[in-house]
Amino acid sequence: MSGPVADEPILSVRNLYGRIAGQQVVEDVSFDVPATGVTALLGRNGVGKTSTIKSILGLIDRTGEIRLAGERIDRAPTHRIVQRGVAYVPEDREVFGSLTVAENLRLAERDRSPRRELVASLFPDLEARREQRAGTLSGGQQQMVSLARALVNENRLLLVDEPTKGLAPRIVDEVADALAEAARTAPILLVEQNLLVVRRLAERVVVLSSGRVVFTGSAAELLDDHDRVQRFLGVHDEREAA
Q1: Which residues form the ABC transporter domain (predicted)?
Q2: N or C: which end of the chain has fewer CB within 10 A?
Q3: Which residues contact 134 (CB under 8 A, 6 or more apart)?
């Protein structure tokens, strides 16, 4: 699987518009995702973060130019984008509750040599629960299944939406550990509200407001500027966002 040339972003989005049932939810969004590390997509609730991810994947109606490693994918259907190495971890996990953990993972395998050992090392608790039905797992364990389904394949890009939402602090740490390890294997575009997790994982941030990009740059630069954090994200400090 070929990757981008040196200094070329893995994902380039230009003039992206997205619509749901005819309503504009993403409006003229442009940004790049570097070929390494974690880029966080931030903003207040309802500003279009999830819709931007879904627009990139073609899950909602969209127009604009989207390039993966220099190749246009904005005219490709979702399954073709996934086949090109874009993995998606949705906000609501979407595990198959009636299937076992092992069956959920097998369904996700698209490579000839799935990375089962990597998944087992990252999620030892899931390895011990391979024969347990996913619907009987805790919320945190289901999030691990959702992440594991993405990581079992070799990816060019991971799109991860709100992975720590609603999780206990201990589980948040485990998810952050898994994402840090995952970022060693593929770049990540991460939607995340917990700014402590963002500070730990992200090198760059893209901030949305009302469906538009209002800031791009260094994660540390944004998070160290309390006025910008309050203006763009609606929180006074990282403890309030955790």
Answers
A1: 11-235
A2: N
A3: 95, 96, 97, 98, 99, 100, 101, 104, 142, 145
Which tokens hold the place of 209?
A: 């407001």
Strand-pairing partners, residue 209, are 212
Q: Which superfamily is assigned to 11-236 in CATH?
A: P-loop containing nucleotide triphosphate hydrolases (3.40.50.300)
Ramachandran region, residue 58 (left: φ > 0; alpha: ψ -120 to 50; beta: rest): left
DSSP H or E segment with residue 147: helix 139-151
Residue 117: C-alpha distances to residues 92, 112, 179 (Å) = 26, 14, 16
E-strand ranges in 128-237 read 157-161, 188-191, 204-209, 212-218
Task: Quickly tell me which residue has 């999830």 as its tokens.
Answer: 50
Strand-strand pairing, 204-209 and 212-218: antiparallel
Residue written as token pair 């391979």: 130
- The residue assigned the tokens 């699987």 is 1
**DSSP secondary-structure letter at 165?**
T
Each domain of the chain, given as residue ranges in start order, spans 11-236
Say how far apart CA 149 and CA 19 lie, in whole Å. 28
Single pTM value for the model: 0.89
**Which single residue is written with the structure tokens 């594991």?**
148
What is d(CA 117, CA 123) in angstroms, rounded to the nearest whole number? 10
User: Which residues are within 8 A (CB) of 106 and not within 5 positions of it... i.e. 6 or more apart?
Assistant: none
